[in-house]
């Protein structure tokens, strides 16, 4: 039996269970889930105040203390700096990376009128909603996926925007009323991807977990997160990125789109780049340089 450390939230349990089952299918290894309470689960403060690493650090402590063999994170919630002594041993095939709208009566963004209240806590999503110039009223919310969707059913909000992958992992994809095209709502770097982490010196677990790794997903996530890191921005920053791997003339290549937003959505810089699958980090670095040349720092620094 090897031990998988997981948060106790429904979403964390759903994705940990899915990874555990995939590992058992691939290797025959049985996996025991061990629940770990993080500071982020105990607190009701806005995530922006808690800081990026709050959901992650308790899991990493448990790994380093050898209480568990590995942990599964939502990749987009990981700080961009690597953790000492740990390694992302597998990046499983990515789920849908797009954002999704949940509204009443099947409503899409096109159906929602001026003043429609749309719940989301992410600056990235708020800025892109404003940028549509439809007079929407983004409403900051927090809480788990179920809580957020309930506010729509209860009439407290007209709609919420959430990651499609999270809704789907909870088995509620049929409640999505519109999956948002990346042209309208470019997702967060690494959205929909999972990071499977273990101790770097635990060769046996590293070898086991390799069975779950998906080369294209890993390359995409490296490109997106290198862009984020190069812009010196965290997971709550107004930065969006999506890398896709497509067949080029000389084999597979990476197509990386990136965008930065002023917090009120009045200004956006969107650019893209292609590069070789062999060096996804370079694609991220190059796009970060391009965005900087267009004034990304000033745009994002324009916070207040
Ligand atoms: N920021 C919270 C968060 N972290 C991971 C997911 C689920 C989707 C994913 O794994 O990317 C969500 C919910 C959301 O953004 O709607």
UniProtKB/TrEMBL annotation:
GO molecular function: hydroxymethylbilane synthase activity
Domain Porphobilinogen deaminase C-terminal stretches: 220-292
Assigned EC number: 2.5.1.61
S-(dipyrrolylmethanemethyl)cysteine: residues carrying this PTM: 235
Gene Ontology BP annotations: protoporphyrinogen IX biosynthetic process
Coiled-coil segments: none
Name the record gives this protein: Porphobilinogen deaminase
Gene coding for it: hemC
